[in-house]
Design goal:
CATH topology of the largest domain: Rossmann fold
Number of strands: 13
Number of helices: 9
Helix content: 25-40%
CATH class of the largest domain: Alpha Beta
Oligomer: single chain
Shape: elongated
CATH superfamily of the largest domain: NAD(P)-binding Rossmann-like Domain
Order of helices and strands: EHEHEHEHEHEHEEEHHEEEEH
Strand order of the largest sheet: 3-2-1-4-5-6
Strand content: 25-35%
């Protein structure tokens, strides 16, 4: 099972670390403040107060044993960069780093972060998309042009089979799952499966075509 190191226990880091712990993963939380460390101590596998920009301090808690490190340091950009650099130099297999903006993100990428996330920006985009489309429930970007989205079944697809709709041919969109309720999901829908009113469709395709589908 993967072991996770989360550095920076602000709102984003704490939420991420606690979610991983709740799912049964081993998580080491690190922060230079006493309060967040005490809060996390009873929930995470281990929580340690130290300065993550000092390599010997990080090495003292066995960071080289972890599969994934998340640098979730808040507004201290210098500390974020230094910490990411240390993690890269000691050979952490996968490093995910939180960025404050595009320039910070570019630097993190250049020094070795495998993935850079922009929590505030991404949440803003997600909320905006949900506000624009009444059908859109959630989405995951695959690239700049493609995504996976959850949408409430539009009227024109109700009581029709996937074969009748021919969405792959007409729009280049594939329905990869159909949720009939919160508990029931068909993850291998076939050509003869019928979509009912209120079903939630998990669709994948080009963004411009998915936008069309939401408006149909």
């Amino acid at each position: 099972m993967k072991q996770f190191l989360v550095i920076g226990l602000g709102r984003f880091g704490m939420s991420l670390a606690m979610t991983l712990a709740e799912k049964g993963y081993e998580v080491l939380g690190v922060d230079n403040r006493e309060g967040p460390v005490q809060e996390a101590a009873g929930i995470l596998t281990q929580a340690v107060q130290l300065d993550a920009t000092i390599d010997k301090d990080l090495l003292s808690v066995g960071i080289t044993n972890f599969d994934v490190a998340v640098v979730a340091i808040g507004h201290d950009i210098e500390a974020s960069i230094l910490c990411t650099l240390i993690l890269k130099e000691v050979g952490i297999p996968r490093i995910v780093a939180k960025a404050q903006g595009p320039l910070h993100g570019k630097v993190l990428k250049k020094i070795g972060a495998d993935r850079v996330v922009f929590p505030e920006r991404d949440m803003g985009i997600r909320v905006a998309n949900n506000l624009i489309s009444t059908n859109l429930l959630d989405y995951i970007d695959l690239s700049d042009d493609f995504s996976i989205r959850e949408i409430t079944a539009p009227t024109f697809v109700v009581d029709k089979t996937l074969a009748e709709l021919k969405l792959p041919t007409k729009l280049g969109i594939n329905i990869i799952a159909i949720k009939t309720s919160a508990e029931n999901i068909n993850i291998t829908p076939g050509a003869n499966d019928v979509i009912k009113s209120g079903n939630v469709l998990v669709v994948v395709g080009e963004n411009r075509q998915l936008d069309r589908l939401e408006k149909m």
